[in-house]
Amino acid sequence: FDVYGIPIIGINNVWKGVLLVFHDITEIKKLEVMRKDFVANVSHELKTPVTSIKGFSETLLDGAMNNQDTLEAFLSIINKESERMQSLIQDLLDFSKIEQQEFKLNIQDFDLFELIKEVITMLNKKAKSKDIRLELEFQREELYIQGDHDRLKQVFINLISNAILYTPPGGYVFVSLFEFERTVKIHVKDSGVGIKQEEIPRIFERFYRVDRARSRDSGGTGLGLAIVKHLVEAHHGNISVRSTLGEGSEFIIELHKYMN
Ligand code: ADP
């Protein structure tokens, strides 16, 4: 608590008492700690790929590029590391735009099934490399909705990447789509580490990361789900989570088919 007093003085300078103001600063303090953590995380996340890009490019320039195999291997590392940086920077930019309420949705009609297929194709390599079964299920051929195609793509990239990230090798990530009269639901279910019941309401907070030591290895900033929630809510949709520690998690997104 932050406490301060204000003397209350009546007419003729008669001392009437003191008004005590108690300020609950636990939330502010927590946010401050999270922000500091966030800066440390972001710096670390940027430093790692830059160090690696610098090291590999220097080695190439020092002569290693004369060997075709080395050249290819190193370039592919450099490429991967720059992609990592790019997505982190994108997260930061999106987040600051969202915080300043600067972003506008670009609403169009598009096939959500097609979009999710694209995301799955994009993340399949990552899932395979961890021996994770990544599957998509939908009973029909197409699912047209209104929304911001690119922003929603980002939502599913974030959710499915998280599912792959927090699932140990040998597990699965199942994505299923359900169509209703006016809404659609997308379930992203994994057989991963799960989330403690008491942590569930907090994972959508900006900068919040469960088990920092563990998540730091996995390379995140705690912004992904905060962005996801903002974007889903900007579409007047909602997101919920069911999870059991040690068994897995299921994120459910509900969206309206038509924006008005
Ligand atoms: P980041 O992944 O960058 O840490 P996010 O905002 O995407 O940040 O997620 C916040 C936290 O929620 C993560 O640190 C992680 O602990 C937890 N989390 C998110 N998705 C999952 C999941 N599918 N399974 C288990 N934990 C998850």
TrEMBL record:
Specify the domain of life of the species encoding this protein: Bacteria
Question: Where is it located?
Answer: Cell membrane
Q: Which residues form the Histidine kinase domain?
A: 41-259
Q: Mind telling me what this protein is named?
A: histidine kinase
